């Protein structure tokens, strides 16, 4: 386990104090315009007696907004008198990326969800990752890390988990997925035992904490349907975890579909640079060999467009949003 004493970040909240607290995690950052300034990462803590602790995170990527809006609403509306235990809300984990509306921080260009376990003496994003894994996550009994497609992708709203190879933890994560109640759940392989996963969920796995994530629509916007799904899901996770009473559970009207994402054959990548034409829609079931997309080069309009085909059967979980693409961009992502 990482040493929390090495982190340079300082929280204004007391994690053991009863009631509701709001404040900032101070990441001290000296720049030309502010010699002794700090980056203010917002945090909300609600506590009522002893009990389980839920940690909810969004803004891991700054251009993914559904989770940020849902956690803002939860921070305002959740009554600490109704809970049993503690809820810690970190709605804008990579603050600078969130303010800029970018996947990565404009300060160091680091992707927070590729920076774990972090470095207490590293760049600002590496310092955030270190604080989350060394100080925040060890307090949790369960974690939800809320993502969406961001600026470049659009997802069918779904929740996800990574297999850890530990039967008890994997069973707990599956139960969390069921409680969250997204229309689609997808499961990715893991459990390599190397401890080298540099995502937030990888940090939770190193600590043995059950964790689920989401991919909630995207396109750099907020969709009402996805917002309803995540708001209901967070509420029901709190009921499932014993923090809210059973009377607060919101009914789920449809059975979730479960898919897996196992390998590179479930992705379609652009083979050329140009303007791409998707030939299927989100949520559509496709077959291996089926035509997926064409890529055009308007600068040479007489050229034949490149054609791309799916390499596996599956369900279209996400697609690229900008019409302009470059070789190597992900165009589609399938669930099997």
General description of the model:
The chain has 336 residues and is α+β, with helices and mostly antiparallel strands. It has 2 domains: 257 residues, 3-Layer(aba) Sandwich (Aminopeptidase); 72 residues, RNA polymerase II/Efflux pump adaptor protein, barrel-sandwich hybrid domain (OB fold (Dihydrolipoamide Acetyltransferase, E2P)), CATH 2.40.50.100. The chain is built from 6 helices and 19 strands. It has a 10-stranded mixed sheet with strand order 1-2-3-5-4-6-10-8-9-11, with helices on both faces. Strands 7, 12, 14, 17 and 19 form a 5-stranded antiparallel sheet that branches. Helix 1 packs across helix 6. The radius of gyration is 21 Å and the shape is globular.
Largest sheet: 10 strands, mixed
Rg is 21 Å
CATH architecture of the largest domain: 3-Layer(aba) Sandwich
- Please indicate the percent range of residues in DSSP E strands (runs of 2 or more): 25-35%
Q: In sequence order, what are the helices and strands, one letter per element?
A: EEEEHEHHEEEHEHEHEEEEEEEEE
Task: Look at the structure and name the CATH superfamily of the largest domain.
Answer: Zn peptidases
The helix count comes to: 6
Q: Strand order across the biggest sheet?
A: 1-2-3-5-4-6-10-8-9-11
Mean pLDDT: 95
Number of strands: 19
Q: Give the class-level CATH name of the largest domain.
A: Alpha Beta
Q: Predict the CATH topology of the largest domain.
A: Aminopeptidase
Percent range of helical residues: 10-25%
State the distance separating the first and last CA atoms: 35 Å
In brief:
This protein is of the alpha+beta class.
């Amino acid at each position: 386990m990482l040493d929390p004493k090495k982190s340079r970040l300082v929280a204004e909240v007391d994690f053991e104090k009863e009631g509701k607290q709001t404040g900032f995690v101070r990441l001290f950052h000296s720049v030309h315009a502010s010699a002794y300034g700090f980056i203010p990462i917002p945090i909300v803590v609600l506590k009522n007696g002893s009990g389980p602790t839920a940690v909810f995170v969004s803004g891991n990527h700054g251009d993914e907004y559904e989770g940020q809006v849902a956690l803002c609403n939860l921070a305002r509306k959740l009554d600490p008198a109704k809970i049993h235990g503690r809820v810690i809300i970190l709605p804008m984990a990579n603050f600078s990326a969130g303010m800029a509306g970018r996947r990565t921080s404009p300060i160091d260009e680091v992707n927070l969800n590729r920076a774990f376990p972090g470095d207490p003496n590293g760049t600002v994003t590496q310092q955030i990752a270190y604080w989350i894994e060394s100080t925040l996550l060890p307090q949790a009994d369960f974690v939800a890390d809320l993502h969406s497609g961001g600026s470049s992708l659009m997802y069918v709203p779904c929740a996800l988990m990574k297999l850890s190879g530990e039967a008890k933890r994997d069973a707990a994560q599956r139960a969390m997925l069921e409680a969250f109640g997204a229309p689609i759940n997808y499961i990715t392989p893991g459990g390599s035992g190397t401890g080298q996963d540099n995502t937030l969920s990888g940090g939770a796995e190193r600590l043995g904490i059950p964790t689920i994530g989401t991919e909630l629509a995207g396109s750099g916007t907020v969709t009402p349907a996805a917002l309803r799904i995540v708001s209901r899901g967070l509420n029901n996770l709190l009921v499932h975890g014993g923090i809210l009473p059973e009377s607060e559970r919101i009914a789920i009207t449809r059975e979730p579909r479960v898919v897996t994402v196992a390998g590179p054959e479930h992705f379609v990548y652009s083979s050329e640079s140009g303007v791409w034409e998707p030939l299927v829609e989100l949520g559509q079931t496709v077959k291996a060999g089926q035509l997926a997309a064409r890529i055009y080069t308007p600068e040479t309009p007489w050229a034949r467009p490149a054609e791309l085909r799916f390499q596996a059967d599956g369900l279209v979980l996400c697609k690229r949003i900008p019409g302009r693409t470059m070789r190597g961009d992900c165009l589609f992502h399938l669930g099997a």
